[in-house]
Amino acid sequence: MIRAVLFDLDETLIDKTATVLTFLPLQYQRFRLGEHGVDEQRYIAEFLQLEKAGLVRKRDLYPRLVETFGLPGDLAAALFHDFETVYPGMAVPMSGARQTISALKQYGVLVGVVSNGEGNVQRPKIAAAGLNEGLDLVVISGDIGLRKPAREIFELAAGRLHLPVDSCLFVGDNPEADIVGAENAGMHAVYFGPKNAWPASLPSPRYRIDLLPQLIALVRDLNALTEGLMATKRPRLR
């Protein structure tokens, strides 16, 4: 039985692309990077390329970004501090995120977040997006020294909910960090992303959704299937 649904944060519960594309032009303007000969669109493009869909920590990204554009080295720390303090408050929820969390809670399952990143960035983002209410668990990699796809971070999350890993379902957009990582830990996993973004080198995801609210019916169907299988194994009374 699925007793808990755990979510990735960026590009799953939070529309990271929309948030980043709002933040970066403002950062570019605040630091007057145009005066250093930096093109705004190239600045945005280099940021997105260097972060590798969120797998690279921002404290490591900004020195590389500064080096790419030949900017003064001390600017990296200032840009990173700006990211830490300004970006989290701009986070917006993914379409259907709040409704899905609410519906899952009403259905009776626990709901949590397991995210790579720094706690002082990810937790304010959750609050800014209005997602705090309804979450039973928040695990951030920077707080515990583990990062997805390490199986231990998924095991830790299940343990904090006092549940076996196979009663948890993980939802995320990153094939390796989220889906492969969760499945290697023994969790069910749902890919929330476009078909054409799934690597050909990996087996096709067992479950995939296009919209977060589709998750509610999927959880109900999985539990109904489990109940049916359990019923067939029960000894019949004579």
In short:
By secondary structure, this protein is an alpha/beta fold.
User: What helical percentage do the residues reach?
Assistant: 40-55%
By DSSP, the count of extended strands is 6
Mean pLDDT across all residues, rounded?
A: 93
* Tally of contiguous helical segments: 10
Low-confidence stretches: none
Please trace the helix and strand order, writing H or E for each element: EHHHHHEHEHHEHEEH
What is the C-alpha radius of gyration, as a whole number of Å? 20 Å
Residue fraction in strands: 5-15%
Structural class designation: alpha/beta
Cα(first) to Cα(last) distance is: 28 Å
Largest sheet: 6 strands, parallel
Globular, elongated, flat, extended or rod-shaped: what is the shape? elongated
Strand order of the largest sheet: 3-2-1-4-5-6
Pfam families: Hydrolase
InterPro entries: HAD-like_hydrolase (IPR051400), HAD-like_sf (IPR036412), HAD-SF_hydro_IA (IPR006439), HAD_sf (IPR023214)
GO molecular function: hydrolase activity
Protein name: HAD family hydrolase
